Amino acid sequence: MAPVSLEGVTVVQHPLIQHKLTIMRDKETSIASFRRLLREIAHLLCYEVTRDLELENIPIDTPMQAMEAPALKGKKLVFASILRAGNGLLEGMLDLVPAARVAHIGIYRDHETLEPVEYYFKAPSNLEDRLVIVVDPMLATANSATAAIDKLKERGANRIRFLCLLAAPEGVERFRNAHPDVPVFTAAIDSHLNEKGYIVPGLGDAGDRMYGTK
Ligand code: URA
């Protein structure tokens, strides 16, 4: 299935992604399987979010002869993980792009107010010269995602994409209003957010399901 594109939002509807996502949603799925599936889906999403990266020809010698062969152009990519659940996607992204630089952004949402609280930010230099792909499995209220991207832009990032596993329509709308220049890639857009800010039907708390916490 080809990706479905809304305004600035790509829903990557590959059958393998949809199948794996169904297993992740199931509350009986083990922590080990949940983590492995997230990593596998990250591979497939990474393929899509990097589909249009620019190439340049570089000279190499094969065992047979010299040739000009395509290689990724420009400075290394940055994957920016919104802690902690972002790390589940990050691992899979790094499997495919091992030379990428990594930013860690520590933001949690206050369970009362649902507002983002930042406690950590560490990013590579020269963000202005790099494509930054921000990863977080759940685009729910979009509070953390918009705050993370505010911060990356303050530090100079000007080419940013956002990659998640599941999004709520409310989160997509809020995110697109806050950052219309940042394309969103997701495996699915679910029905709605509940009063506690959880995506419905969703898969529960991604961080808890990855790390076995409550
Ligand atoms: N974060 C999660 O982990 N799950 C949700 O449903 C919403 C935000």
From TrEMBL:
This is Uracil phosphoribosyltransferase. Uracil binds at residues 199, 204-206. Binds 1 Mg(2+) ion per subunit. The magnesium is bound as Mg-PRPP. Pathway: Pyrimidine metabolism; UMP biosynthesis via salvage pathway; UMP from uracil: step 1/1. GO terms for biological process: UMP salvage; uracil salvage. Belongs to the UPRTase family. It comes from the Bacteria. Its cofactor is Mg(2+). Gene3D superfamilies: 3.40.50.2020.
